[in-house]
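--- STAGE predict ---
source: upstream dedup step, 1 unique chain passed
mode: sequence only
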Amino acid sequence: MSKLLSIVPGAALALAALSAVAQAPPAAPPLEPARLMQGFPPPPEYRIHIGNWQRWPQKIWSFQNTRELFPTRALTPRGLVWALPEARRPLDALQVGTADAPMTWAQMLAATHTDAVLVLHQGRIVEERYLNGMKPETPHLMFSATKSMVGLMGAVLVAEGKLDPDARVAALLPELADSAWADATVRQVLDMTDGVRFTEVYTDPKSDIFAYVGAMGWAPELVKPGNPTGILGMLGTLKGRHDEPRGTAFRYRSPATDVAGWLASRAAQQSITQWLQERLWNRLGMEHEGNVMLDPLGTEVTFAGMSTSLRDLGRIGQMLLQRGRVGEQQIIPARVVDDLIRGGDPRAFEASGITYRKGWSYRDQWWINPQKPRSFAAMGAYGQRLYVFPDHQTVVVMFGSHPQPIAALVDPSHARAFAAMIDLLGSTPAR
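--- STAGE serialize ---
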């Protein structure tokens, strides 16, 4: 069932919606996004809290204001800002649809519920816009694009000899010695081929992810009596393994990121936020404050809790495009970026059954597409994306608030739009 929903989620959701409409009473008038959290106090239907923050349209506001809903740790810019020169291109009328379903760039942004978009080409801003109340300084929740920042930390530690990719989890984290993680290697956890059993199907209310989300504080109604409070406690409760040998099948699961983050923090002797602050926010010329969400026990939500501004995430992408170097500084080792471009094991990815990303791989918590135009990407639910196109000197950042957390509802539109945009940038002079 989970594979079917992954492949054709739109059809499945549409059928479910039609069935619900046929049986439900008349719907209440739709909320106006511009009125969310407006007034003192806001009308009850326009108030946003941890009981409704992931509903639509409430998420339009909450994804831009997580600091008002949850505890966070700040990421603070230091020193001179890395200036991004501008070479704007008119993209609104760019055709990015199909022959049967024409669509312009501007229509694509609306259809995918985009909150902000940034395109850098050869280090210059060619497209930047803010929608749905977003501003340049607004930190937007990245959801699972956060995973790639954790993977970046782990990959740097491996490259610097501070984290052994062949070490077993239990040797580094004795707290997980009695769990299914114990015999997995660091490399297998970073690439999500560790074989630990955990279901993450957001359209299945029985999926393991909901108890996990309850324990880490995102949804009080999902708290299950008897479960530990907090992320670290939940990791030790995972005891089951899949039948295949470890390292042979990619399975996308958020707890693997939290184990990766724990391994990285233990090796570096600093939190994810401290590492990001010292390595990126102190050295990369960041412009705005970001933050990382905390669970009820003060543990960072490393699988989905980072927020950053549009341009600052673009700076991370541009740094990676430049093989880790900015000016005279080597921010991260070039071999880390080279490894991302090479990608992970495509056979392991194929074994996952993710057919709508055929030929892809997964490496250090990044999604790798070897097909033209080649890319590596950080991806998060509801439309959060950071794409780096190394062959085309292009970086794309997307923030969104799509009603559904399903990649297949935005990826085809994004793929067509990026291909058309890259073709335009390669043939049209800057203005």
